Each structure stands twice: as C-alpha cells, then as structure tokens.
Amino acid sequence: MVEQPSLSQADEKKKFVRDKFSSISGRYDLLNSLLSMQIDRYWRWKTTRLLREFPAGPVLDLCAGTLPLSLELTRQTKQRQVLSVDFCEDMLKAGQQALPQDDRKGRIFPVCGDGEEIPAPSDTFHGCTVAFGVRNLARTQQGLQEMHRVLKHSGKLLILEFSRPTNPVIKPLYAFYLNKVLPKVAGMVSGDKEAYEYLASSIAAFYEPEELLTMMRQAGFSHVERKPLSFGIVSIYIGVK
Ligand SMILES: C[S@@+](CC[C@H](N)C(=O)[O-])C[C@H]1O[C@@H](n2cnc3c(N)ncnc32)[C@H](O)[C@@H]1O
C-alpha cells in the first residue's frame, strides 16, 4: 500500500496548490499552449476519443481548471453533458469567461469542489476524466476511491498525466526543458516562477506508472492499463468500474 499524507499535510498541500493555480489562472491557457507547443491539444483529443463508446452519457471532468478538456469532451460528442469540478474558483471562472459562444456553453456545468470529496452522488457518470490533476491531489488514493464511487458500473476512468520519459535521448533533453527553460519562460509570462518550479518538482516526485496502476486497482478499478504518449512525456491511465 502506497503511504498517504496525514490530514494536516494534505490541507497544507491543498492550500498551496489552490493558491498557485489561482495566481496563474488568467494566463494558464496561454502558458499551456506556449509551453507544450500546442501538443496538449492532441493529448486531450486522444483522451476524449477513449470515451467514444458512451456517446451520450454524462461525464465528470475532475480538476477541470480552465475547462479545456470539458470543451473537448463536448466538442467531440454533441449530446455530451459535463460536470466540471475544480477546487480553485479562479481557474473555473477564467475558463467560463473564455467559453465559446456556442451550444457547448449550455452543456458544461462548472462546480467548485474538492476531488477528494466529489460533490456528486454515487453511480452517476459514464466517464470520469482527470487531465493533469491527479498529480496535484493531496491524497491520491482518496481521490481515486471517489472517482470510483461516482462512476456507474462499467464506467471508465481516464487519467491524463505527465510521466517521466525513459528514452536515453529524450530523458536529459526533457529534464533540461522542465527544470531550466520552463520555469524561466513561465515565470516571465505568468509572474509566478514558483508555480512552474512546483510543476517540475511535482512531475519528478509523482508515482511511477506501475504504482499509479496499483493504486487504481486498490480503488476498485479493473482492466487497468497505461498508454504512453509523446515518448512517455505523458500517459493516459485507463480503468473500468
Ligand atoms: C494543471 S491544472 C489542469 C486543468 C485542466 N484539467 C487541464 O487539462 O488543463 C490542475 C487543476 O487541478 C485542480 N486541483 C488540484 N487539486 C484539486 C482537488 N483536490 N480538487 C479539485 N481540484 C483540484 C487545480 O485547482 C487545477 O485547476
């Protein structure tokens, strides 16, 4: 069993994470596109495609932030309704202000809430997506249990998250970019260098893929698997309730 932080450590991390995202909320989308050279769009597209078997079912987009994945979910499937939960109100507000004036606006329902105590009844959603959010949870196992609780039987969990490339050529290049280039550029654009130093250190400190897959199984998921993308810079983790 992977060790989990105490409640007070968890509260401390939550406050730090909420404050950091609040401080960069107005620049988050710009920085995302800039720093990933728009590859993040492909990663979200690929993740969303994995929910094709539920073309109409409601989906929970957890740690939804400025709503980029909620938008992709409602773009790919015309009847899709998405509950978009995040505990940082400023991120949700920035996302809402930038929503395109089309029918998707009426199918995305942003709610401020904690992913470790999801504000939704059990057995509700056909799918649950979490893009770049699981790494930020203070109590990952508690969050995974909550995701399992709110999914319907046969519902699918899709976690899109940074992983660490193992390719000997890519690995040092990526480490240099993440630790040296990214905090500098992001610090200049967002005015908060610390937020992007946190990004690099949280990627370095995050669970190994096998550990996360084990935690998903412990939370009750079956058919658990990982699909690495872009040399393993990110991975999609899949589980079924
Ligand atoms: C890197 S952003 C990802 C936003 C979006 N999903 C995306 O694809 O860009 C991570 C988000 O997770 C949220 N978050 C972190 N811990 C959370 C928690 N315990 N409950 C709800 N949201 C949380 C943060 O507020 C932040 O908006």
Roughly what is the average pLDDT, rounded to an integer?
Answer: 93
**Which stretches of 5+ consecutive residues score pLDDT under 50?**
none
Strand order of the largest sheet: 3-2-1-4-5-7-6
Principal-axis shape equals globular
Q: Which assembly state applies to the chains in this document?
A: single chain
Tally of DSSP helical segments: 9
Short structural summary:
This protein has helices spanning 7-24, 28-36, 39-49, 68-76, 89-97, 140-150, 170-190, 193-205, 209-218; strands at 59-62, 82-86, 108-112, 125-131, 151-162, 222-229, 234-240.
Task: Characterise this structure.
The chain has 241 residues and is of the alpha/beta class. The protein has one domain (7-240): Rossmann fold, CATH 3.40.50.150. The chain is built from nine helices and seven strands. The protein has helices at residues 7-24, 28-36, 39-49, 68-76, 89-97, 140-150, 170-190, 193-205, 209-218; strands spanning 59-62, 82-86, 108-112, 125-131, 151-162, 222-229, 234-240. The chain has a seven-stranded mixed sheet, sandwiched between helices. α3 (39-49) packs across α4 (68-76) and α7 packs antiparallel against α8. The structure holds S-adenosylmethionine (SAM). S-adenosylmethionine is lined by residues 14, 17-18, 21, 63-65, 68-69, 86-88, 91, 114-116, 131-133, 136-137.
